[in-house]
């Protein structure tokens, strides 16, 4: 039998100051995943959807995709994202994620409550007298 020596590694400990330096460096230089694209365009798209809702109009996936392409063609936005309209695909997954991030849904009110006539109370009293 051959005797194998197990090497024992010496442990290294770091001070709080050294740990803080590492953490600060990581926060400054290491990102947490993918960078967000088209931030300004997304804000404009969100505002557009809200405007449509205030008008009582339905907004569907196709409308959202087309509006995003329209926004990406605007001169101000093209300066920020020169290849934006060419690169943007507007997949169903992207639209669903966008809607979820901004806490939006595609549903809208199906009925707007009707205003009652001013003489509703009088008619109700008259109806009650008629029944009794």
From TrEMBL:
Domain HTH CENPB-type residue range list: 29-108
A single GO molecular function term of this UniProt record: DNA binding
Annotated Pfam families: HTH_Tnp_Tc5
Entries under Gene3D superfamilies matching the protein: Homeodomain-like
InterPro entries reported in the protein's UniProt record: HTH_CenpB_DNA-bd_dom
Keywords of this entry: DNA-binding
Name the UniProt record assigns to this protein: HTH CENPB-type domain-containing protein
């Amino acid at each position: 039998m051959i005797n194998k020596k197990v090497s024992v590694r010496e442990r290294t400990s770091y001070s709080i100051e050294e740990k803080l330096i590492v953490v600060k460096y990581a926060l400054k230089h290491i990102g947490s995943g993918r960078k967000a694209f088209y931030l300004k365009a997304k804000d404009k798209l969100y505002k557009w959807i809200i405007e449509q809702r205030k008008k009582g109009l339905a907004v569907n996936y196709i409308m959202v995709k087309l509006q995003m392409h329209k926004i990406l063609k605007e001169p101000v936005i093209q300066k920020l994202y020169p290849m934006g309209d060419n690169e943007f695909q507007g997949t169903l997954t992207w639209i669903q994620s966008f809607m979820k991030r901004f806490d939006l849904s595609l549903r809208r009110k199906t009925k707007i409550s009707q205003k009652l006539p001013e003489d509703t109370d009088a008619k109700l009293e008259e109806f009650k007298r008629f029944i009794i």
